[in-house]
Amino acid sequence: MTKLLPPRRGAAAVEFALTLPVVLVIATAILDYSWFLNRSADVLTAVREGTRHGATIEQDDDPGAEAVTHTEAALNGYGFTCSGSCSVNAFVGEVDGMATVSVQATVPYGPMVGLVPTPENMCATLVMALEDQSED
After folding, report:
1. What is the pLDDT of residues 92-111, one digit of tens each?
2. Would you give the end-to-end CA distance of the chain in angstroms?
3. Contact criterion met (CB below 8 Å) for 68 and 86
4. Given 3-state DSSP classes, what are the helix, strand and coil percentages for the chain, each rounded to the nearest 5?
5. CA-CA distances (angstroms) from residue 36 to 112, 119, 131?
6. Each residue of 47-101: pLDDT tens digit?
């Protein structure tokens, strides 16, 4: 009996070699973007902590400066080394007749693997009403 199909030796190895780069790029993209989203959530949480701290202190104690200090401390607690590379700003203002504190942070991002393009910075902004600390 003769064989009708030619031998397929090595076909699986060739298919593996062709699909492996695609699978690796997809896997590294998942890692990089997951890491970016995780770190972005940490930045947002640090900004939320700083804004909350600034909104709850006495208004005579400069809520903006306190919010910046607390946000920078929270960023350090989350593992960001911001020696001059991070930008944290706070503004005390008024929105619709209500006193507010606004904190904005921009933190540089370094990808985990770096095979896919990711943003260079992570940014977060939060506005919160100042609590009334006066005793009536």
Report:
1. 998 888 889 999 999 999 88
2. 104
3. no
4. 45, 20, 30
5. 8, 8, 33
6. 999 999 999 988 788 899 999 999 999 999 999 987 778 899 999 998 888 889 9
